[in-house]
Amino acid sequence: MERLPYYPNLRLNELQPFRKLFEIESEYMASQGYYQNERLAALRQFAVSYIEEISKCNPFDAFVPFLAMSYFDRFVSSHNLPKIITSNDEENLKLFVLCCLTLAWKMRIRAFKVEMFLEERKLKFDSKEVRKMELYILNALEWRMRSLTAIGFSGYFVPLLGIPSMMQPVQPVYQ
Amino acid sequence: MDYLIDTMDNKYEQLETIGRGNFGEVYKCRDREKNTFASMKRILFRYQDDGVPGSVIRGVALLKELDHPNIISLLDVLDDEKWVDLVFEYLEMDLWRFMGTYPRIGKDPNLTKSFLYQILSDSYRILHRNLKPRNIMVDVDKKIVKIADYGLARPVDAPVAFTYQVLSPGYKAPELLIDAKYSTPVDIWSVGCIFAEMVTHHPLFNGQCEHTAIMEMFSLLGVPNVETWPGVTSLGINLSNPEALVSGVRRSLSDVVKGLEPTGIDLLAQMLCLNPCRRITARDALIHAYFRNA
């Protein structure tokens, strides 16, 4: 099999998906300037702590809150929060953050049920409001929910660590 | 924001119902602005307390990534209180009807070659599992084929074969019929069957049930043994009496698929290798000698 001089661990036919990943990744990133915006940084801090609080479960899947934050970042960096609960801004913000999490959970776990999730945490959100907010987020993110994050690249770097070949790195899968 | 007022009625004119499934209904519709047709699948939210169904989110997210000229594309996702509408590219003709409607053009060897190439160039991207002439759409003017089956949780698949749904063991790979583990080679098998059918305009295997399908395969391609397919004995077929697994007169592929050039027969034989591990891959098929003089 032909090897490429500048990518010693990649075969010719593996380079294409690698380039493709870079191309795709930009579609899943927050807009430029987002991380310098102080107002949004405060909002983000709230989101992280609220997600930490409500994502607790057993067994804990760290990828779910991680994915939820990637939705949050993409949304907040280019859209205004929708007003679904008009009477209470804080509840509205919580609902938004919560829906980033339910969407991430649904992407990850087939058996996830919103109703049970709310019940177990004694959260009093109306299921209609949850759906409205979810739809709003989905539309704003153009339903592109299979976020390509840093984890998608790991398969290409793990071989560089010189780990024995029997521990095959997980390749990013587009299905 | 304008995406919230982009409702079905504003953007599309709903025409006749062209299908019905347990997920909801399929309509033909017209894009008011572009004046083009589209098909639209309406998926009702069945469980009111669960937000947007996870199967729909996962399916649509996947479709959003599939941007390929040989795949029926998802044009739009519109939502309402009670449902989401998935709007797909619309093509009137599927490959099955195309072969019936254009018996002469449909047998043109160059067209067969081109269609096969197009189908293969898409098929390694996803596992379809159910490729057959009924779910391959044909753009007759542009001579383009587009696959309309994404092998996904069914609600989000592009609508195909509205009139009747036939269970088609005739295109299923042997490992699917005997319940073994399967992967992308199952699609290559189906594409091989479709390839043969494009040449002859007759299904290669007619198998009405899985048992007769297996018999037809073995009659044409030989009964596998531990040498041609290591591990085959553990798959649950009784191979102790190979004669009982074949029927009729033994014929070769070139007898059955008459008119196909020798390189084509060679490619077909490699696509119809019973052992999935030895079956040719889509990538290798695309660089096979058969396509060299295309």
From TrEMBL, chain B:
<dbReference type="GO" id="GO:0051445">
    <property type="term" value="P:regulation of meiotic cell cycle"/>
</dbReference>
<dbReference type="GO" id="GO:0004693">
    <property type="term" value="F:cyclin-dependent protein serine/threonine kinase activity"/>
</dbReference>
<keyword id="KW-0418">Kinase</keyword>
<dbReference type="GO" id="GO:0051301">
    <property type="term" value="P:cell division"/>
</dbReference>
<keyword id="KW-0723">Serine/threonine-protein kinase</keyword>
<keyword id="KW-0597">Phosphoprotein</keyword>
<dbReference type="GO" id="GO:0005524">
    <property type="term" value="F:ATP binding"/>
</dbReference>
<feature type="domain" description="Protein kinase">
    <location>
        <begin position="12"/>
        <end position="291"/>
    </location>
</feature>
<dbReference type="InterPro" id="IPR011009">
    <property type="entry name" value="Kinase-like_dom_sf"/>
</dbReference>
<keyword id="KW-0067">ATP-binding</keyword>
<keyword id="KW-0498">Mitosis</keyword>
<dbReference type="GO" id="GO:0005737">
    <property type="term" value="C:cytoplasm"/>
</dbReference>
<dbReference type="GO" id="GO:0007165">
    <property type="term" value="P:signal transduction"/>
</dbReference>
<protein>
    <recommendedName>
        <fullName>cyclin-dependent kinase</fullName>
        <ecNumber>2.7.11.22</ecNumber>
    </recommendedName>
</protein>
<dbReference type="InterPro" id="IPR000719">
    <property type="entry name" value="Prot_kinase_dom"/>
</dbReference>
<dbReference type="GO" id="GO:0000082">
    <property type="term" value="P:G1/S transition of mitotic cell cycle"/>
</dbReference>
<keyword id="KW-0808">Transferase</keyword>
<keyword id="KW-0547">Nucleotide-binding</keyword>
<dbReference type="InterPro" id="IPR050108">
    <property type="entry name" value="CDK"/>
</dbReference>
<comment type="similarity">
    <text>Belongs to the protein kinase superfamily. CMGC Ser/Thr protein kinase family. CDC2/CDKX subfamily.</text>
</comment>
<dbReference type="GO" id="GO:0005634">
    <property type="term" value="C:nucleus"/>
</dbReference>
<dbReference type="GO" id="GO:0030332">
    <property type="term" value="F:cyclin binding"/>
</dbReference>
<keyword id="KW-0132">Cell division</keyword>
<dbReference type="GO" id="GO:0000307">
    <property type="term" value="C:cyclin-dependent protein kinase holoenzyme complex"/>
</dbReference>
<dbReference type="GO" id="GO:0010468">
    <property type="term" value="P:regulation of gene expression"/>
</dbReference>
<dbReference type="GO" id="GO:0010389">
    <property type="term" value="P:regulation of G2/M transition of mitotic cell cycle"/>
</dbReference>
<dbReference type="Pfam" id="PF00069">
    <property type="entry name" value="Pkinase"/>
</dbReference>
<keyword id="KW-0131">Cell cycle</keyword>
